[in-house]
Batch of 2 targets.
Target 1
Amino acid sequence: MTTTHGPAGSPAAAPKLEKRPSPVRKLNRAADERFHTQRALRENLNKVFPDHWSFMIGEIALYSFIILILTGIYLTLFFDPSNTEVIYNGSYVPLKGVEMSRAYASTLDISFDIRAGLVFRQIHHWAALLFVASIMVHLFRVFFTGAYRKPREINWLIGVGLLVMGIFEGFAGYSLPDDLLSGTGLRIASSIAQSIPVAGTWASFLLFDGEWPGMNFLPRLYVAHILLIPGLLLALVGAHLGILWYQKHTDFPGPGKTEDNVIGHRVFPVFAVKSGGFFMMVFAMLALLGGLAQINPIWVFGPYDPSKVSSASQPDFYIGFLDGSTRLMPPWEFRGLGHTVAAVFWPTVILPGILFTLLALWPWLEAKFTGDRESHNLLQRPREAPTRTAIGAMSISFYLVLLISGGNDVIAKTFSISLNAMTWAGRVGLIIVPPIAYKATKVICIALNKRDHDIAHHGIETGIIRQLPTGEFVEDHRPKPDPVPDYPLVPTHRFELPAPGHGNGDGHAKGGITTRARKAVTGFFTEEKTESGEEPVGGPRH
Amino acid sequence: MSEQDDTSTGGGSVFDRVKRPAGGGPAGGSGGAGAPEGPEVLGTPPAPTDSTQLEEHTSWRHAGVAHRPPRAEDVDRRAERRAERLIALWFTVSVIGTLGFIVANFAGDKHKAYYTPCLGLGIALAVGGLGVGMILWAKRLMPHEQAVQERHSFKSTDVETAVLEEEVALGFDAMGLGRFKLVRRSLLGAGAVLGGLAVVPLLNLTNAKPGKKLDHTHWVKGARMVTGEGRFVKLGDISIGGIETVFPAVPVKDAGGTTRFEPQLDLHTKADSATILVRLEPGINKPRPGRENWDLAGLVAYSKICSHAGCPVSLYEQQTHHLLCPCHQSVFDVPDGCRAIFGPASRSLPQLALGVDGDGYLIARDGDYTEPIGPAFWERS
């Protein structure tokens, strides 16, 4: 314990090589002889990750992705993605004898007849919600602290790609069971595909294998859900983490922290144990939700029937903003020259297209507007960049109006409001709320900045009031203290390495009886001897 | 700086680790005796309640580091043992959770209500116990430190960049793409044509060209209207204010010359031919020009597939005679030719001409809808 607390700035001498290595050390040396691992291992085990609660949101997304893969593998073993119609004969009595697709029947089986099927199905669904939600919150953290600035723009871009892919993956996933709710969602998706000018009808026919409801499209949706998109997600997650690892994490300003260092815990041991524990906690939370909180009870909805729909049918939350934009859209359908552009095209293709393009390009847009082309490793507090924070608040309020409008029928029913009034409130709100959010946020940020400025220049109020000889009363201010770190700063490379150039022989040449025995039989395994006959070619040691 | 703090400091935690600045000097003096250089203190200074102002804490400040008081585990062997036992307890909870999961999985009755919650609880304890134990372990027993690592600029030196650029340029020179125009152009051409390898398999994804498929439904002239349960519908089956969803039952000539009506209740027929019958009060229907005789004693037939995004329009409000689509809240006014009056839909629902056959059953008098049903598409005129 005490060895880790070496005094700052004076690394200890390098330790001697252990002469009688334990099996683990032997393994390590064997790997090193083949892959030259020691330097890279040391670098990576000593990698420092800064501590802040907001840096754990992205971890939640990563962990829910891992849980999605684990539970998803279990579900693939029992799910049958087939449109083929069967008569249900499982143990859920209310649907006995009902004609349905095998996809729906096998989902019922997973829910009622497969051991631990329902709990893993529900964990999978909850994890999907958590995955997208934590990506969004992580995005807010990165946005409001300016973490995407140079040199991290590419990772921002990958993150936006992960969000979009995560939304597609979630939609594909909850569409697979072929229940009434998911079928309705797919019907709308096919209408959206159909609405694209010029290529739309073909796109819809290609996606669903013919005119809706298609011939046998569940298998291809399944391939997209369990192979194509997860493969892409995995690659993007790998790139995201790899870049994060390589570029090192950003950190908030603080005592001892500069643009040129990272202060926190090393990967080994503390960060690894804490993160492992955090993964387990996320898993435990999802297991609790999956076990105790019902989600997507497909047996209540019944099998898909294109002529039926349940009222107040709601998609998963991450699709809600598209539902909202579709509901708020005025009936603008353009007809002319023998062609039609559907009203559904604008809010479901054009709007998200613009939103996600702006989101993806934001780091470059900001750099362009501010002229800031410098690299940044220290984060900003939201108030330090009032315009950016205001734009963020504006965007979130825009998103929230859409999201709320996606459930406007439920809200109208719950609070006995006219549905038309809700729609109009959404239409008007979409135009007036974001500017208000922008203005209010900017004013608040500037005011907070001003207070910080006052404290920095005039100090903190002490509560001590003094009377000057002139009779004037003044309050004492004391300067804001410089922040001081809590713990001593310890360099990660505690042991100094000798200058490169001369290896240290580890004394394997002379040895005990086994070494001599090995030498004696070596010739048997090697076909030739060197000219001098002393050492075999390709022998174990030179 | 004087080490001793006067009593007037303290208060908010911002002050915890600061001493009075050298320039400021003590403001009041601890005794309140009235410092000669300063004016008199009015008001009540906050009481010094913060323990970090005490001597034993302040004396640790050195080398720019303000230590927190050590954890109990660092100084007290028994506290360390207690922490160790607590962590082991959580790891034991994990074992219990795993065992509980195994027992519940195999011994539990999977049709009982307790089954899934027990499994979830078992997993939660199994992984949560490990998680809590690991985090306690890191926080209570592992040393606290602030490791420092340097960052380096990612930018290469000018020489490195120049050398690489030069070498790559030489490489391209050696490839000769600049000199051999024919190679360059034919290569680009080949690359572009190669795209066909990607496009053609994509086109194979559909079993049929769209063609005019979206323009037609399964309704044919004389097709009877049949409910989802397979019952043919007569006018009297629907009371005033009532609705019914019907599908086509197409006439099939048997070998003997008799006509059978084959109900089409498969998904594909339901998806485009679902039709909603609404019985309006007599006299309130305002038929469109040319459709004056499409209704039957107040009974009208419209496509059930929403002209907006294709959901079934299934909510009918009797008093207002409005049909509502539950997906995006488009509202259609039934007596006015199912005109879209609110929401994102912009087109009326297509109408089907009603008739009665010799046996009194409702039929599609003129055959299919006169316009494509459902959502718009590019080729729709």
Note: Chain B touches chain A through 115 residues (CB under 8 Å).
Target 2
Amino acid sequence: MKDNVTIKGGAHTDHAHDSAIKHVTGRADYTDDITEPVGTLHAYLGCSTVAHARIEKLDLSAVRAAPGVIGVLTADDVPGVNDISPTGRDDEPIFPTDKVEFHGQPLFAVIAESRDMARRAAERAEVSYDTMPHALDPVAAQQAGYPHVTDPLKLERGDVATGLSTAEHRIQGRITVGGQDHMYLEGQIAFAMPGEDDDVIVHCSTQHPSEAQHMVAHALGVPSNAVTVNVRRMGGGFGGKESQMNLFCAVAAIAAKKWNRAVKIRPDRDQDMTATGKRHDFVIDYDVAFDDEGRIQAVDGSFAARCGFSSDLSGPVTDRALFHADNAYFYPHVRLVSHPMKTNTVSNTAFRGFGGPQGVVAAERMIEEIAYALDKDPLEIRKANFYGADGRDVTPYHQQVEDNILDRLIGELETATDYQARRKAVLAFNAASPVIRKGIALTPVKFGISFTATWYNQAGALIHIYNDGSIHLNHGGTEMGQGLNTKVAQVVAEAFQVDFDRIKITKTTTEKVPNTSATAASSGTDLNGMAALDGCEQIKARLIEFAAAKWDVAPDQVLFLPNMVQIGDTSLSFDAFIKEAYMARVQLSAAGFYKTPKIHWDRTTGKGRPFYYYAYGAACSEVSIDTLTGEYRVDRTDILHDVGKSLNPILDKGQVEGAFIQGMGWLTSEELWWDGDGRLRTHAPSTYKIPLASDRPRIFNVSLADWSENKERSIKRSKAVGEPPFMLGISVLEALSMAVASVGDYKTCPRLDTPATPERVLMAVQRLKDPS
Amino acid sequence: MTHRDEIRFLLNGRDIALNDVGAGQTLLDFLRLDRRLTGTKEGCAEGDCGACTVLVGRLHDGQLRYETVNACIRFLAMLDGCHVVTVEHLSGPDGRLHPVQQAMVDHHGSQCGFCTPGFVMSLYALWMQTPEPTEQQVESALQGNLCRCTGYEPIVRAAVAVSRYGTPASDHLNTERDHVTARLAALRDGRRVVTGPAENLGILPADVDDLARVLGEHPDATIVAGSTDVGLWVTKFLRPISPAVFIGHLDELKSIRTTDSGLTIGAGVTYSECQDAITGMFPHLAAYWDRIAGWQVRNMGTVGGNIANGSPIGDTPPVLIALGAQITLRCGNDRRDMPLQDFFIDYGKQDRQPGEFVESIHIPRAAPGQLDAAYKISKRRDEDISSVAAGLSVTVRDNTIQDCRIAFGGMAATPKRAATAEAALSGQPWGEAAFRAAAQALGDDFTPMTDMRASSGYRMLSARNLLLRFYLEHDAATDTPVQLATA
């Protein structure tokens, strides 16, 4: 046996994304690239032009008469249930019957011979409305007496009233945190093909094929076993394709069955951005009490969210905002309440972090308030409030923090970035520079990993080994660019000790693994990697039993070595061994399954262990602002992030870099702006500005905490990486805030709301220059 | 000579000849729907994301030059006589990855992959033009490409490394350059091209005189130079543009003349084509020019179009008005000149008669003692539309402000001079007091609007502060930074 031979693409190695070559050559097929059968029809949505109204008349005769039109679909044409609410609340019709609840709400679909014809026809609808007053934001909604779209949550521990009233200092304030559009490069799309009986196959770009399957079945009034949903890959998801694809899948499937032809629906970018949900905006009122050292004594927080017209995922999103309103800090006495407000806007949905980032922003704002009130460095306040031992380790939801590594992580980053000296230099620079000001901030993140809907924490996989030794891998997770398929294949390669390229990664389909959870909550690899490993272990157990019997050795004498199997003194290539096993009628296929242990959550009492573990990270950002215009640049960012024992460090680093930039965009240039009529006016990249290459920090250093290992038995002791680093972008907001605060000699918290556009920065500067 | 009714171009290695190409038909739809070349993606259909980036090679005075364009807003008819190169054409016949592609794979430059072909095409063009780019050159080349996954870091690393994977000299667009040049030259027959059905008619005049004739025949035609705005009329608003008259191919409108009196550029000159000449004569425009749209749009859009469409938020009018630019309008064989500032009458209304077209723009050289600045404020630094844009030309002699032209975009219904602020400065001694007075006077010049780009209050405050910035920047006593560092 050769000693130093290892497989290609095993666990804990830098392996390229499995589709990288297809990406760069343009040969990776997305849903819109699938060859269309003859006679494929195209659907397009017709949408409302008012924010809140009764529909007096929906006249589609001109639509029907337009060139190339085959027909239209309205609420009356839904054969099953006219509802696509992902939580079963029955509050989200495919098409409304009597009432418009937001500007841009889909009212009907037109089906035509070409997409262009369908688009043009959709413009011809004549709708008369009896308009009603609308409320666009959570504050307006509260003032207008609008209801919650879902039950609020309260987290409470200790005696908040006493904590607030007895502390040495107390500050009350408000922060408005803007939403965010996903701006995945590939928009929403569904492509349905009718089959015999009730059957329909839907190719689409969803993070949640099982839900899309169930929704299509629900809308068609057929059992789920009639519907197959397929996803090979998405051109980005970020949460925007968790529930939002349901509408498009349902429309395509209904039309495909109605006309017995393949039907594709792809909105243009404007419609994609106006008709599908986004990150929730929040208005957060905080009341924080602290001692002379800046140690928080009590926090009372109210989190009002713009949920839109229906609940969608607003319940768990606003819950997660509360779960993260502590960020990394211990609150001795705490009360946190959510207000998931109904508004006359598109129904907001999942977005990387899922409410968590908004909670963390609120925590960091309170830290800032304390620091400016006490004339201290915010980092000193952060450190004083980190979760610790002896009674300082319990969260507002009564989970004990057992795996905190922030002291080491922050310490290493502080040293590596020379934070203290640089902060001094920034202070000195500002003292001598009237126009350009600088700021520096080092912020932590602690993020809870697991779906708070406990039953979602399950996954399945299907592994086949064909008799030539090639392996087919399928699991319930979906690939949206994060490299999930690559990492799961690495787990399988490691398990069988075969090279990565022996494994065929296949599309996600509800035909192979049923009842899957959304690929969301950063859980993709944790759940599906474990399920795949379970499948591998089942097959391996059979192979070992077979080999031990056939070669008459003890089971521990059967070893899977790189691309070969050693059985006592005999060694065979993996392929030859598999052939032997096949000839001996060993079952070479297995369905793997996994459910996350230890977790439980009781929403009514606000107590439990919703998270299996926490992922940690920290970022230090330095910025410059122009106090004449509010323009700014990020001069430098350093990141140290915890992914446990990484399955694939280069892909994880890519997630950290991308998440940071996306988080920075959320807090800086990405602004959702509705006009007085409730019409979203930032609805395409021309008006909605995500970061560009030139917005990257001028110096950008990203490292993984390679010493970290998950304390829990996660897949190969790695940690989830999708969402946690998104919140590292908060370091940019805090640095901008410090630069602004310099104008008031750091005496006043600038209360910079987000997104901190140049306008918000300049106006905050102006408030400090001229407090009247 | 009879008209031609066929659009002819090269697509990757093939000759394409198409009849009945409607004026509003886009290159992207042709590639994806007709040719099934699905490597080129639609991300926004408005020229802002770059997922549809392709290369277009065109003969300029016999020289073949390849540039990136957004296929989503490039009309198919405009490709007559061009070589269109898509991502499918990059790998060699042996299937080996192109150096740009291999660098992207090795540096993990793709995650979801949807934007990747567009990035590959932009980096391909950059590598051919600048094989060993600086990070800043990479960023400039990628201003028109959005990636939502990677945060760009690995893409920039790949871009800087491409030259290690191969040299442009051995690239097949270069090795086949003579052959392609000959094929494109053979497509040029000097005829007017008339294409498409009557309700979607597109016309490519044979030359400028023919353009004047075509506009005589169709005085209300839509004139399309770079299609970076008209393209959106079609893709976003489904507006008919027929009859459309395409002018981007006309060599006579591509002239750039530097004389003692100044710089004269033809109306068909793109931002990219005049970048060197403009920034050579007016160095203060260098940083500003690099912030006009993204690279693809700078390769397509024209200064003439930016003026002629009369937008209040176009990037070039404020700075050109401040420089005292004149434009020449032509109708038939009649020409008239006017100061650029007089061209803009009201929102959506310019001093252009039916059948008339902008032929050229003349920018006079700076006067002795003239201090110039160009400022743009936007939510995002690059590839954004301005909230406020400003051009300032202030002539100072003997420490006295002799003359000034200050023009703003984004502050009114048209690009407009700040007459009151100018009056407040003229004749005043150079000093902060004069500029503070001028800043105050801006309130009499403008009542800006609130929209999704900026509030009225921010527009006014930042416009005022730009006057102070101008003062500080040009005042010898200022020894602290006044603007953010660019690199």
Note: Chain A has 19 helices and 29 strands.
